[in-house]
Write a structure and sequence with these properties.
The protein has 5 helices and 4 strands. It is mainly α. Strands 1-2 form a two-stranded parallel sheet. The structure holds a DNA duplex.
DNA sequence: CAAGTGACGTAGA
DNA sequence: GTCTACGCCACTT
């Protein structure tokens, strides 16, 4: 697997503290590619199920805490998981004002 | 090497 | 507030 960037994404997601959520753009920025949000989402898209239980992909959301309609096994599942982590929701979006790094 | 794709992001209407 | 269009990066074929 030469997918170094991908591993980089997995590592970043894995480093997400519980009760906190990050956006693709935010992760991409941490990796050094502020415009590589798509590449980040792609990394999670090809995320092997083997790692799906090791990588809290459900803590990764879109800008503003929006959940994409193509999320993992279903955006509903992700939302439920986030709630189980203690994350509050604002309608269909994550309460970024509390968990989102975005102030 | 070139083209296509994709869990995105921002700007404009 | 919602939808559309373009641009960005990385990976596959």
């Amino acid at each position: 697997m030469k997918a170094g960037f991908f591993e980089r994404v997995y590592d970043a997601v894995r480093a997400i503290p519980k009760g906190r959520v990050l956006t693709y753009g935010q992760i991409a920025r941490l990796l050094g590619t502020p415009r590589g949000a798509r590449a980040v989402g792609w990394a999670l898209r090809v995320l092997p199920k083997k790692l799906s239980h090791s990588v809290p992909w459900h803590r990764v959301v879109g800008a503003g805490g929006r959940i994409s309609p193509r999320a993992g096994f279903g955006p509903l599942v992700q939302k439920k998981r986030l709630r189980a982590e203690g994350v509050r929701f604002r309608g269909e979006k994550v309460d970024v004002g509390r968990h989102g790094v975005a102030t």
